[in-house]
Amino acid sequence: MNLTTFGQSPAGRVARVGQGEAVYWAFVPHPLPPLLTLSSDLLLRLSQADQALGRLAGFSLLLPNPQLLTRPFIHQEAVLSSRIEGTQTDLAELYAYEAGQGSAHAATNPDAHEVLNYVRAMEYGLDRLATLPLSLRFVRELHEQLMRGVRGDQATPGEFRRSQNWIGRPGSTLNSATFVPPPPPDMLDALDAFEKYLYRPAEYPALIRLAFIHYQFEAIHPFLDGNGRIGRLILPLLLVHWDLLPVPLLNLSAYFERQRPTYYQLLSAVSERGAWAAWVEFFIQGVIEQATDAVSRAARLLALQAEWRQKLLARSATALTQRLLDRLFQQPILTIPEAQQYLDTSYNTAQRSINKLVQAEILQPTANAYNRAFVASDILRIVQDDPVG
C-alpha cells in the first residue's frame, strides 16, 4: 500500500503494524459522516434519484402481489453482485441449479452454490428485519448465510476476521497490496463506530447516507471473504428497513457491474484523496438508472403475466394451471416433481398443467431427457435484458 498516497488522505489515517522486517501499513477510515458540500449538481441528481425511487416505491405498492416479482430481482442482484467478485453463473444457470438441474452438490458447482447463497442471504435478511434491525449482529448473520458451504475452509462464516487481510493482484503481499484495511483491533473500533452511525440522527439525505455506508463497509473489510457481496447486499435491505421501498426491487449491483472499473476507482479515490463528492454522485446516478430500469422491467413482467393469463383463459386452462403460471414468475425453471409439490397434487395432474403451458408456448422443455426441466424463457429474457435507455 502506497504510504505517500494514503498518508495524506482526509478520509482516514494510516496505521503502522508489526515490528522490524514484519512492519506493514494499513488504512483506518475515519468514522462517518464525512464533511460533504452539497453542490447544486449533486442536489439536482439527488432530487432526480428521490423521484425515481418514489416512482418505483409507488409502482411496487400498486402491484397486486409485490412478492411475485421480488424473487426475479433478487436472483439477478445475486448473479451480478457475485459476478463482480469473479463468478461466472448467469441467471438461467442459477435457476437451473436451484431447480436441481445443475449438480445438487456444492463442490461440483461452486459458482452457482455461492450465488444461490446470496439469494438465501437476501431472503433471510428480509425476514430477519422483522425481529432485528440492521446491526453488526445482523451483518454477521448475513455473512453466515452467504458463506455457508462455500469452497475453501478459511471463510469463517458469520465471524469478523481475527487476522489481517488485503486487496491486490494475485500473489501480492501485505507490502505490495493495493489496499490494506484496518488491523483487527482498529477494525473492531471502526465497526463499533459504523454501527453507531446506522442509528444516529440523519444529517444527510438517506441516499447519501447509503453511499457513505457502502464505502465505509468496503474500507473496513471486516470478513476474510465475502466483503463486497455483503456490502452490496445490505443496500437493498437498508432501503426496505428505512421504508424507502416496500420490496427490494432496486438492483444497484447491476449498475456497479456495468461500471465496474469506475466503481472501484471511485471507492479507491475516497480512501486515497477523500473524494467523497465524486463517489456520492456516481452512487446517486446508479439509483436513478436502476430505479427507472426496475419500473420498466416490472411493468414488462406484469404485461407478460396478463398476456399469458389470456392465453390460458382461451384454452380453458384449470385453476391449477393458472396457479402454476404465477409460480413461474418466482421460479421460471421447474420440473414436474416441483410443480407437483407446489400444486399439492398428483404427478399426472402436474404433468398435464406443465403440458398445457408448453402447448401455449409459455414453457419450453430442456434438452435433458433425464429429470427434464421446463423454462419460461420470456421471463428470463426480461430480467436479463440490457438496461433501458
Q: How does this model look, in words?
A:
There is one protein chain. The chain contains 16 helices and 5 strands. With 389 residues, it is mostly helical. The protein folds into 2 domains: 294 residues, Orthogonal Bundle (Fic-like fold); 70 residues, Winged helix-like DNA-binding domain superfamily/Winged helix DNA-binding domain (Arc Repressor Mutant, subunit A). The protein has a 3-stranded antiparallel sheet with strand order 3-5-4. A hairpin with a 6-residue loop joins strand 1 and strand 2. Helix 5 packs antiparallel against helix 6 and helix 8 runs antiparallel to helix 9.
Give a short summary of the structure.
Helix content is 59%, strand content 5%. With 389 residues, it is mainly alpha-helical. It has two domains: 3-296, Fic-like fold (Orthogonal Bundle); 315-384, Orthogonal Bundle (Arc Repressor Mutant, subunit A), CATH 1.10.10.
Termini separation? 39 Å
Shape: globular
Mean pLDDT: 92
Rg on CA atoms, Å = 23 Å
Query: What low-confidence regions span 5 or more consecutive residues with pLDDT below 50?
Result: none
CATH class of the largest domain: Mainly Alpha
The proportion of residues in beta strands is 5-15%
Describe the biggest sheet? 3 strands, antiparallel
